[in-house]
Specification:
By secondary structure, the protein is an alpha/beta fold. It contains 28 helices and 11 strands. Helix 13 links the parallel strand 2 (311-316) and strand 3. Helix 2 runs antiparallel to helix 3. The longest helix is centred in the middle third of the chain and has 33 residues, at 423-455. The radius of gyration is 26 Å and the shape is globular.
């Protein structure tokens, strides 16, 4: 795909700036102001005012060929490096101390990732508010809110904080206007003079308004996974009108899209796992296809460049246009292993069955990796961390002994497999123990939510989240329509295969005793090779064995009850999130050898995708097993990972695979299409493969930048052939 001369200059500049970003002092300015200039103010106000100061003090960076204005990077110098005698950690410190210490045993449990960490981020906001109202329109809504909620201190924090941040956004924007006029760029200056202050009128104004607000909100809420979401959906009406009135051509709009993708990548170039996700296509609230010409334009613009940001996913509506399906297949095969394809029908159905109205469910997005939320209506902690499910099973087997390091858990009393005379009793015990850790994690999220309300005010973002303005509350204080918590259960396929092996080998076929099985796992099967072969030969999830598949679905169903039964402090629920991510090698390293024959250190399965060692009957059988999972329960999304050999996986094959998967109810399809030999050579000679991009899990990354354990995981995965 050809690039214009202007875009080639921008590409080269962005690539250089992305790899060698100039250091910035944002955190230094922010923390210093909070702890000196604003130290006397209430906690929320000192943080907001310090953030606003740091926003306004950012450098203005404009090149002569820029049309999209507002460049920054995230190469922030650690404040302690600039001033080692100052306690900058006090910026977020609260009087309540460390949240982790409020739950007995939490730190010990977290050591093995049995409980989650309460990670913030992974949300979107409805930035269409700024396109529609402008910052001045939002300002009026905040002033009205101050009057309506007179005497309500929490509402005052939201609205006054938002006014402070709106001032900062407008002031930083004005600095760009002045610089543009000095450079003689009057056209760009006039656009920036109008937006984001006033409603956008054209596609270019809308794109500029989006970009400027995105940068500032990401400074207020600097977390991975905070994403633009449905960018084509909101921007298309502006482009459609421009095309009708002859103000813009599709070619000109495509070039602006290219510039947007490059600017986003430049800012976070070195952090492939950061995650700012764009979802294209999808459905309207009435179920009709929302795919539009901008949807195609944006995919094609992204495919021109070897960049990893933003994450660009395609939503397949019911009755998707054939051309859009074909483009998805092309993106999968030729898009540099960056694609994830989403099945609207299955995901929307799961959301509706879990209590989300159809009108909201149709407006879903993926934040960060793939976790599903509602655009501009969801609070923080949508993806709060992950759980090591195979480790729970290990502790249930061994009486609380961690096999890799020999550590005995002190904060939990355990029985062992030897204490059980039948499989059903042991299975129920495993579910009880896993549920215990899930419940602790949901309670911990409530504590984190309270902590974030005090220490991480997000007033500007909150003005673009339903129903914060109506309720007079920020996203952490109950303002968001959906104050839900989500977490990923890693290793359900591993647990299913291991439980099936325990049932068959110990309780039904007498292949070994419980003591022998525990001893073999503790020895990592050294000296137990015959037993390991027998365990590996047992049926597995992924081989179209009805009983093994049913056991995997049973685990998911039973554990989902914990999430569905939990009601948090604002009436929100827990959400199952089953993602493919970089945690698989970590889970493998924390978990010893398992009863299915897997050795210690072998990465866990990716989401609900069967283990590589279990997919012995080909990808069709593996997909047929996977779709037996209860996808209707996965309201937070469930991804799958299918690595394919390029000698076989052309566009027709890939199209057939993901459309068949979707027809059977699967939610998300992704994977690598590359030669394993290339991966091995890239690991050995990284300088020869600087732009080899791979799908790690919920994100894509340059292979040579990955840690060796992740490289090994991708190399060792089963790459399906004909």
């Amino acid at each position: 795909m050809e690039r214009t001369e202007r875009m080639q200059k921008i590409y080269e500049d962005c690539k250089y700036k992305g790899q060698y970003p100039e250091p910035v002092h944002f955190k230094y300015d922010q923390h210093k102001a909070a702890l000196t200039k604003y130290a006397h103010l209430p906690r929320w106000e000192k943080i907001v005012r310090a953030t606003a100061d740091a926003v306004v003090n950012q450098d203005v960076i404009i090149q002569p060929y820029d049309k999209l204005i507002g460049r920054v990077n995230y190469n922030d110098i650690d404040p302690e490096v600039l001033d080692p005698d100052f306690d900058y950690k006090a910026f977020y410190k609260g009087e309540e101390g460390d949240v982790e210490d409020t739950i007995p045993g939490y730190r010990e449990f977290y050591k093995y990732n049995l409980v989650l960490k309460g990670i913030p981020g992974h949300i979107t906001w409805d930035w269409n508010y700024i396109l529609h109202y402008g910052t001045e329109g939002i300002r009026e809504r905040c002033l009205e809110g101050l009057s309506r909620f007179s005497g309500d201190e929490k509402a005052r924090e939201l609205f006054e904080g938002a006014l402070i941040m709106l001032d900062a956004l407008e002031s930083w924007n004005e600095k760009h206007v002045a610089a543009l006029l000095e450079m003689g760029k009057t056209e760009e200056a006039e656009i920036c003079r109008r937006v984001p202050k006033y409603p956008a009128r054209t596609f270019r104004e809308a794109l500029q308004s989006f970009f400027m607000q995105h940068i500032v909100v990401m400074k207020e809420a600097p977390y991975g996974g905070n994403s633009p979401g449905r960018i084509d959906y909101y921007l298309w009406p502006y482009l459609e009108q421009d095309l009708k009135e002859g103000r813009c051509t599709l070619e000109e709009a495509g070039e602006l899209c290219e510039e947007l993708w490059l600017r986003i990548d430049e800012r976070i170039h070195r952090n492939d796992a950061w995650g700012e996700t764009v979802v294209l296509g999808g459905s309207h609230a009435n179920g009709a296809s929302a795919v539009n010409p901008l949807s195609y334009l944006m995919v094609k613009a992204f495919m021109k460049y070897d960049i990893t940001h933003p994450y660009l996913y395609m939503r397949m509506p019911k009755d998707a246009p054939k051309e859009f399906v074909d483009l998805a297949a092309e993106y999968m095969v030729k898009g540099g292993n960056r694609a994830q394809i989403l099945n609207d029908e299955a995901i929307i159905r799961a959301l509706v069955k879990n209590g989300v109205p159809q009108s909201d469910a149709a407006n879903y997005y993926c934040g960060g990796c793939m976790e599903v939320g509602i655009q501009g209506a969801t609070s923080d902690l949508l993806f709060a961390g992950f759980h090591n499910i195979p480790k729970v099973l290990e502790l249930c087997m061994t009486g609380g002994l961690s096999l890799p390091d020999g550590y005995k858990l002190q904060n939990r009393s355990y029985r062992s497999l030897t204490d059980f005379s039948d499989f059903e009793s042991f299975y129920r015990y495993f579910i009880e123990e896993a549920s215990f850790f899930l419940k602790i994690s949901l309670e911990f999220c409530d504590l984190q939510s309270e902590h974030f309300d005090k220490s991480r005010p997000h007033p500007l973002l909150s003005t673009m989240v339903s129903d914060c303005i109506a309720r007079g509350r920020c996203i952490h204080a109950g303002g968001a329509r959906y104050h839900d918590y989500g977490a990923s259960l890693v290793g359900i396929p591993n647990a299913a295969d291991s439980l099936y092996a325990i049932k068959e080998a110990v309780f039904e076929r007498g292949i070994c005793t419980a003591e022998e099985l525990i001893a073999a796992c503790a020895a990592n099967f050294e000296g137990c090779e015959v037993l390991r072969k027998k365990l590996i030969a047992l049926p597995k999830y992924g081989q179209e064995c009805a009983e093994a598949d049913a056991l995997a679905a049973r685990i998911s169903t039973d554990l989902s009850k914990v999430y569905r039964g939990y009601v948090n402090r604002f009436g929100g629920r827990g959400k199952f999130v089953l993602l493919s991510f970089q945690y698989s090698p970590l889970v493998g390293s924390l978990t010893g050898a398992t009863p299915d024959g897997r050795l210690h250190g072998v990465p866990a399965a990716q989401s609900v995708t069967p283990q590589s060692m279990s997919m012995t009957k080909g990808i069709t059988a593996a997909i047929n097993s996977t779709v037996t999972q209860p996808f209707d329960l996965f309201a937070g999304g469930a991804s799958t990972m299918w690595d394919l050999d390029p000698s076989w996986a052309d566009q027709n094959v890939v199209k057939a695979l993901f459309t068949t998967f979707f027809e059977q109810g699967g939610q998300m399809f992704q994977g690598n299409i590359l030669n394993v030999d290339d991966l091995v050579r890239a690991q050995q000679h990284p300088d020869e493969y600087p732009n080899l991009i791979v799908r790690v899990g919920g994100y894509s990354a340059r292979f040579i930048w990955l840690d060796k354990d992740l490289q090994d995981d991708i190399i060792s995965r089963l790459h399906h052939r004909a």
